[in-house]
Amino acid sequence: MRRDEIVEGDALHPGDPVVIDRYSTAARFNHWMTAASLVLLALSGLALFHPALYFLTGLFGGGSNTRAIHPWIGLFLFLGYMGLFFRFWKVNLWTPTDGTWLKKLHVFLIGHEEDMPEVGRYNFAQKAVFWWMGILIMISIASGLVIWEQYFAAYTTVDQKRWAVLIHSVAAIVMICIVIVHVYGALWARGTMTAMIKGRVTGGWAWRHHRKWLRELAADPKANRGTATPAE
Amino acid sequence: MFPPLPNPSTAPGPARFGDKDLIRRSASTVTPPAQRQTEVAKLIDVSKCIGCKACQSACLEWNDQHEEVGVNTGVYDNPHDLTPASWTLMRFTEWVNPETQNLEWLIRKDGCMHCEDPGCLKACPAPGAIVQYSNGIVDFVKENCIGCGYCVKGCPFNIPRISRVDEKAYKCSLCSDRVAVGQGPACAKACPTQAIVFGTKEEMKKHADGRITDLKSRGYKNAGLYDPPGVGGTHVMYVLHHADKPEIYAGLPNNPKISPLVELWKGVAKYAGFAAIGALAVGSVLHRLVAGRSEVSREDETNAQRLAREEETKERASP
Amino acid sequence: MTNSWTDIKNTDLVVVMGGNAAEAHPCGFKWVTEAKANRGAKLIVVDPRFTRTASVADVYAPIRQGTDIAFLLGVINHCMQTDKVQWDYVRAFTNAAYVVKEGFAYQDGLFTGYDESRRDYNRSTWDYEIGPDGYAVVDETLQNPRCVWNLLKQHVATYTPEMVERICGTPKDKFVQIARMIAECASPTRTMTSMYALGWTQHSKGSQNIRAMAMLQLILGNIGVRGGGMNALRGHSNIQGLTDIGLMSNLIPGYLTIPTEREPSFDAYMATRGFKPLRPGQMSYWQNYRKFFVSFQKAMWGEAATADNAFAYDWLPKLDVPAYDVLRAFELMHQGKMNGYFCQGFNPLLSFPNRKKITTALSKLKFLVVMDPLQTETARFWENHGANNDVSPAAIQTEVIELPTTCFAEDEGSLVNSGRWLQWHWAGGTPPGEAKHDTWIMAQIHLRLKELYRKEGGPVPEPIVNLDWRYKDPNEPSPEELAKELNGYTTADLTDPNDPTKVVIAKGKQVPGFAVLRDDGSTACGCWIYSGSFTEAGNQMARRDTTDPDETGAYSKWAWSWPANRRILYNRASADRSGKPWDPSRKLLEWDGTKWTGYDVPDIAPTAKPEEVGPFIMNPEGVSRLFTRGMMRDGPFPVHYEPFESPVVNVVAPKVRGNPVARVFRNDMEQFGDAKEFPYAATSYRLTEHFHFWTKHAHANAVLQPEFFVEISEQLAKEKGIKPGGTVRVWSKRGSVTAKAVVTKRIRPLVCDGKTVHIVGIPLHWGFTGAARKGFGPNSLTPFVGDANIETPEYKAFLVDIEPVAGPVA
Amino acid sequence: MNMELSRRGFLAGAGAGVAGTTLGAFGFGDVEAAHAASIRPFKLANTAEARNTCTYCSVACGIILYSKGDLKKGEKAEIIHIEGDADHPTNRGTLCPKGSALLDVVHSKTRTLYPQIRKAGSDKFERVSWEQALDRIARLMKDDRDRNLVLKNADGVTVNRWTTTGFLAASATTNETAWATYKVVRSTGMVVFDNQARV
Hints:
Chain D: InterPro entries: Mopterin_OxRdtase_4Fe-4S_dom, MopterinOxRdtase_cofactor_BS, TAT_signal, TAT_signal_bac_arc. Chain D: Its main location: other. Chain D: It is found in: Cell envelope. Chain D: One of its GO terms (cellular component) is cell envelope. The complex is a heterotetramer of chains A (232), B (319), C (810) and D (199). Chain A is 62% helix and 4% strand. Chain A has 232 residues and is mostly helical. Chain B folds into 2 domains: 240 residues, Alpha-Beta Plaits; 52 residues, no CATH class. Chain C is globular, with a radius of gyration of 27 Å. Chain C folds into 5 domains: 241 residues, 3-Layer(aba) Sandwich (Dimethylsulfoxide Reductase, domain 2), CATH 3.40.228; 135 residues, no CATH class; 121 residues, Rossmann fold; 40 residues, no CATH class; 143 residues, Barwin-like endoglucanases (Beta Barrel). Chain C is built from 21 helices and 35 strands. In chain C, helix 3 packs parallel to helix 9. At the C-D interface, helix 2, helix 10, helix 13, strand 12 and strand 13 of C face strand 1, strand 2, strand 3, helix 2 and helix 3 of D.
């Protein structure tokens, strides 16, 4: 019995409508903690990136505090992302379907999802977000340590620091862009937010966006919590 | 000799320049004063310097700095590098002149060059933490400094140092407090041989010409003034006996400029970044308007129910 | 200094040899850089090390320490051979033409009259031929083979450039280049100045080092002129003053001398002083000796010094030996012949040679009193500081009393700089804790002694109880009162010798100058050369007028300089025999037909005719001396002698070790090392970041040069496997020190007489008190031997060995 | 004479012109201008000045002591800064690394503050009063002099020589201190008497 697309805790409850558990409480908590750190990092980072946004340091109790806190939030983000990574890396692996899906991206964008190949728990775009964030967070952490004046000033040359500060800011920008796409996606496809808020989605949502995943859930006795009792 | 400055007056007097004379202020836009003050400059004549460290001593004393007592590491340079307390430092180089085979002991007073185009100020994210006065003095404002160390990356001469005590950046202020009352910097006042002199930038250049002529007459055919154009000129200049190779003076940069990386980071990156973010935001809105929302239909729900039921029965059917 | 710091700007050539002005006197050195910048003057530095002075020099030549005389006589030889001599000056103002007695000779490093057992000379033949007229015989034609000029020519002939290279290790081409540059200054319109310091004095033949240069300067006509002279940079801020006031065993203020046992009476004493002129019409100023002496006695004992008691002549001690200098003092201490010792602002534990001997000597005292503003090592010589002062307190029975004194910032008074300027200063701060002025402390000691002698009696109390102590507050004489005493005042009305009814100066007035001092007790004067410093016109030392007509650098209205506010000594020699300046552009004095006019106070009577009176008025000859007669114990001409510890044998006098009449005590002889055991030539010196052992108490200076180190060449470091910044042990026959190693190109091996000589440089600023890191001083290594004439220890040339050691565990 | 502080100094002389223009350069624009945030107040304002001479070498540079509180007014004065005297002909306001840090030696942590006596064999100093210290010194001196003063030599010549106690004088003390010292020391017949001239 194939269950490539199922994550521990996914469950299907028949009824009208069919209700599916997509994210456990732990998973949701992990996601939102990561999301929060990202937002705080963006705010504090941007505050020191562009004078026009320096006022944002007010949120963190002034420039010095902003400078002091930012790296620590970075570490927090790192932990958060690690959690999500170990939770979801399997279901984010590349499948041939992703290729065909990508080819028909324009169809997806104009909303004709019914004409798209059936996808599993995540479609190509979601996987891209997952992996890119991973890479960028790694880059930001590495370059961030180099410019963490307070503790690591001594270990690198000024020129290395100059590279680091440039790389760090570019990586940050890209991340912010990805986050925007990520959030917009969630808002765009109605019924998605509930997944990260309540943890549940309707069968219809799954049928429309992640049919492959739905099929596996339905076909899986452990996941499919049928109501009818077996006959003698 | 170069006319010495008078003894300072102990009668409290007004400052000769202030905020109204700012031409640059970090992370802020200022409207420069209509009339710029005469530019001042400190001229360091390396060929007259006897490396006595009076400038270091005077700097520590005037600025009430407390440097740690270090160790000897086999050289005369003490401390071994600029520190948050030591804003100036004699750097000693033993150089054998390949042409004459004579040993030359090159001694250079290191410290802030007070660039006309200051990299530290350009890199600084904290409004008003670094300021530049119309007389050319580049000064750090402790109260506004956040200790991020960007100035270190911005400086082409590797001058600013961040204190581990209060996480603030420090460097030579050209004794702005003395200049403000018509005095010269403490180092220039102290320098026993007047290897350091202070005045208007024009006077300093004129004085330098005289020195260079003298040096040429003594066989230093490459004697010259170090006033690097790469940073728009500096308000601390050197007379060098070998101006053709500044790097032999403990690595004085040959044609210094603000690192292209910093330019990129503080320039293109900033604008491109915001452009990208903006574009995406707009894009999303447009997409929403054009493509509308992706809705789950009733049909989808029934399909899901059907699927769930069929599979369930399949399972029951199987033995 | 014969000239002044500010006068150096007038020179054409600066020779820094036996000194390191840029490091030891940076602000005075300014005037060298001024001369370079404004006159295009050149700077020559001759030194074993490439010093910070050398770093701004036009020409630098290395030299092995202790061979300066060979170098200088080599230059004199060059000048004589190439006829680079300012003949008019030499003929008119030196004793070149004087004929020397038959019997005087020089051979194999010794002059006639040497007595090995006494390590001394019988100097009777070292003098002029005296003619029937009672005057010295001269031969203006310089034909007489026994005239000074010809004897000198013959004496220096040995010192060819090749010989100089063999002895000094100075590359021949460098030597010749320098000799030529110097010789140019024989022209009346070119002057050279000599700047030297302890690099010349701290040798067993220190005074002869200086003589050699003085002779050269005379041959070039550079004494008494602007931008010329013999300029001793001197050490401490008032070492000139302390010497002027004669705080030495054998001195009376103003370079008068303490009686010896051979002078039982005042007349006997006077008979050997107050020299008669050796040539007609000369001033021979010491003829006034009696006036100065009597006035001094009056300043000491006031009313109690009268003609009847020979002005208290017997209250002065009489010496049995030439001098009880510091070396003798510590020798006596070491022999257990001393009980008490006072150190007033002095740190002998680090200042005197052979520290082991110093510690032992101090340990044999009953009591030691230290008066100092800082916690000196000497006051703690009994305190164990591990390797830095390895003693056991319990074993040391000396009672030590430490008295806190004020420092410069808290007291008022005058200091004499090397240019002989007496400058007054004022206190600016309140003394810390219970610190007191030295004047208060000395007064307290005196008053207590006086009281004890009044109460208890005792041997010869008179000089103590009669000491003139009539101060407003006997407990603390004020600086003004003391300064006025030094200047001198009248104790009775001074009447015109020609008209006794006419009072020239009333009783109780400050004297205007030493010219009015008398030998009948009607004047009192603490220090005759200071007469004029605090007159009825007020405190001349406090003058602050910076005017300087024609910017000669004289500043004659700034403070006051002895003698008689004269800024350049022997200034009459700045003009030729007829009184015209040698160099009109550098005029100092000029004879206008009736009197001397110019920028300075003439050295001779303002109306003394130029053809008649010689410029060197303190000499009975009226001229300067290329040949010093019997006035120096080790010879009328300088001779190259090796240091007592030398890496090579003396090429010109192989049989002589060191200076044959240098001050050596028997048991110290055995403490000399030889080149087999200690192969490297060491020298000690100061660094610009520090001043002796004081600035290690100043935090900033401790920062600028924190730790004791020694300097060696890259070659020696390679040979010995010494790493830059590594730790080394350096030891001599007398002791051992550990230090950081500074490996440098500025010190290079020299080749002397075919032998490679490595030099080890040892700076002297560290001890075991203060803000800097604990360290050693070179005096743990240096030999206990003194100069033949002035007993200055030989700190600049001795032998050591060196090896790398494991660094201290931090 | 005492403390007139000629501001004239060399500005009156040749320097005036140039120095003038130099001063102008520091922007005598608008004198009402207040201190900028970056410029700290001039720390010598309202201090008392005293002319002094550097205590170290014999170049004898002119210095000015700046203090809080004025000795001349009989106040307690604490020196807060020391700087070269621009009016001084030799140093023209310049100072070497030692002179520039004179303040650190004046306020050195290792200055002596009160009389101390270290008894024979002891391993520490003990604080005593001036009275105790001075009485003790006078006693020790007199006892030694009474015992060891040489009145006459072998040939019966009066020599009044005291060789068992010696005095080493400083070389940074004033002439006036030196003279007081000379008088006191010589009056006792002490001959083991020397100063720093040799080293």
